[in-house]
Amino acid sequence: MLVCFRSRIQIPTRTNSLYSIPKSLPSETPNASKTLMAAPGTQLKSKRPTCPSCSKPASLCICIRIQNPGLQNKVNITILQHSLERKHALNSARIARVGLQNVTLSTVSDVKFDAKFMIHLFDPGHDSGSGQNGEKSSDFYQVMDDKADEFDASHVTKGSKEPVITCSIGKYGIVTDISIGNVWMPHVQWKRRLSFDKILASKVAVDDLATGFVVKKLQKRRVGGSEELEEVEEFEVAVPPGSVLLFPSKNALDVDGLKAMDIEAKNLIVLDGTWSKARRMYCENPWLRFLPHLKLDLDRLSLYSEVRQQPKAGYLSTIESIVYALEEIGDYPEGLDSLLGVFESMVGDQRRCKNERLSKLPSA
């Protein structure tokens, strides 16, 4: 994720085509005819060995640079990773995934045709309107006590009734249809057209969502190279009580602002992608608007600056955002700063690889 914060230092814009993000993943190739074929009598070279933990080439593996087991962070981290970011050489979410114990990651794709979201409350048996901001969900905390580094969405939704929200969207987050469950019908004021703003205006809905919910995304995709579309499940994410989105929207608060509103961050949701991709993920996942938004107000430069193009000074990588946010919140396990050292070494690896490749280019 790239998080904006104030800085007086200017970074020169750098364009580096060697490390640009690929236009599509291999798994998304529409036609088999586009697959590269080996010439007769030749063999395709095998892929470089890859570390199964960090997904880096074995020669650039970062796992040996990270404390094992990972650091015990008290604030859980939920990473929503853009599908085109996961294989990028400089993606730093892998450091958080290996270096911190309480991290969950879900892959998010851009909406190409149509997507549907279904939201279920954690506790399907509770009375509507009984939830309060900051109230603990017994289902969630029981799961967290059983296994601190992950929680099971199927456990908290088992036996749940109808979803409280069903929403269909098109590209760039354009809402094409939205409906609410019967449990909220008497409490959400709407006549002709329902919207997320009207749901947010209902204290009953807001209080219920504050007790925790699970959001499932279904996305329509082409079947092979045909025009036929099929609906597939893309992710199911548990959003426990105390969840906060790290995103600098106009209504975002700093840590002091969250404390003033008596909001204790227990689960930090982070968008992992370039700034443009993070903004599109935010627009195409309107359920994120149900969460308090956290912004960082720091005067630091990103370690990305020399090897990856950034819109302007003050935009951070995902691992930098997570480390600084945990520090601001007060979750500071011993060795947390060492993850920034790992990131710096990864950037150094990429800089070295770039120089080696440039040195092999024929001179003009």
TrEMBL record:
One of its GO terms (biological process) is tRNA processing. Residues 47-355 form the DTW domain. GO terms for molecular function: tRNA-uridine aminocarboxypropyltransferase activity. It holds the Pfam family DTW. Belongs to the TDD superfamily. DTWD2 family. The lineage of its organism: Eukaryota, Viridiplantae, Streptophyta, Embryophyta, Tracheophyta. This is tRNA-uridine aminocarboxypropyltransferase. It catalyses: a uridine in tRNA + S-adenosyl-L-methionine = a 3-[(3S)-3-amino-3-carboxypropyl]uridine in tRNA + S-methyl-5'-thioadenosine + H(+). Its EC number is 2.5.1.25. Signal peptide: none annotated. It comes from Populus euphratica (Euphrates poplar). It comes from the Eukaryota.
